[in-house]
Amino acid sequence: MEFFVDTANLAQISEAASMGILDGVTTNPSLMAKEGITGVENIKAHYKKICDLVPGGAISAEVLSTEYSAMVEEGKELAALNPQIVVKVPITSDGLRAIKTFTDMGIRTNCTLVFSAAQALLAAKAGATYVSPFLGRLDDIDADGLELISQIRQVYDNYRIETKILGASIRNVKHIMGCAMLGADVVTAPLASIKAMLNHPLTDSGLKKFVEDARKMQ
Ligand code: G3P
Q1: Are strands 164-167 and 186-189 parallel, antiparallel or unpaired?
Q2: Across the strands, what pairs with 112?
Q3: C-beta 4 within 6 A of ligand 1
Q4: Residue 81: pLDDT band with limits 50, 70, 90
Q5: Most buried of 40, 82, 89, 130, CB within 10 angstroms?
Q6: Average pLDDT of 160-181?
């Protein structure tokens, strides 16, 4: 299973990379805005910095346009920044068409804002490299985010589809481990959720005792 961190914050990306388990980064317009990144050139420079922080990692950069031709032009410019860039495209009619165009050009894509297995099937047909079902936002409206992962896994397995399922909108360790149990290929999570995977009270109490006993031996 691959691990991506879901942030545009350079310090957090750097910290996640230093953990030694990071395979990539996902961003979106909201995450970029949160970091105060504005203007085309600043946005491009920021993506380049992210690529440098995670050598060889897959870095999702989302198009801001919603119309097909503009999406394609924007995606081509993003992809030209660094071979690590994966162009992130929303699952709309124009987005689906753009994904197919990027696929034909050999540009990797991450189909985002996916909330149904039907959308995920279309994204795969268009050749998306990754599909991003948003678990947390489904749970927020009392739907079942992990059930969607299960449905997409079944549909993709039925047809040996190679599009990678990228569990997104992760809120907690339960989401991450649910994705792992259900066979998602990737999760993208906030740094706090990834770090929380380390926690167990028996590890804490066990280590405390080992440290105490180690002192007695010195
Ligand atoms: O990057 C897309 C996704 O992970 C967004 O998550 O927390 O805004 O629902 P969230």
Answers
A1: parallel
A2: 90
A3: no
A4: very high
A5: 89
A6: 98
Cα–Cα distance measured from residue 111 to residue 91, given in angstroms and rounded to the nearest whole number: 6
**Helices and strands, number each (H, E), in the chain:** 11, 8
Measured between alpha carbons, how far is 84 from 60 in angstroms, rounded to an integer? 8
pLDDT of residue 218: 87
CB contact burial 52-90 (16+ within 10 A = b; e otherwise): ebbeebbbbbbbebeebeebbebbeebbebeebbbbbbb
Residue 61: C-alpha distances to residues 19, 46, 93, 142 (Å) = 23, 10, 19, 29
Exactly one of 34, 88, 174, 195 is catalytic; name it.
Answer: 88
Closest atom of ligand 1 to 28 CA is 1
Distance 168 CA to ligand 1 centre (A): 6
Tokens read off for 176: 């991450």
Mean pLDDT across the stretch 146-157? Answer: 98
100 is catalytic: no
pLDDT value at position 110?
Answer: 98
| Residue of 114, 130, 169, 175 best suited for mutating to test ligand 1, as the one with most atoms within 8 Å of CB | 169
193 Cβ closer than 6 Å to some ligand 1 atom = no
Cα of 151 from ligand 1 centre, angstroms: 20
Q: What is the pLDDT of residues 31-70, one digit of tens each?
A: 999 999 999 999 999 999 999 999 999 999 999 999 999 9
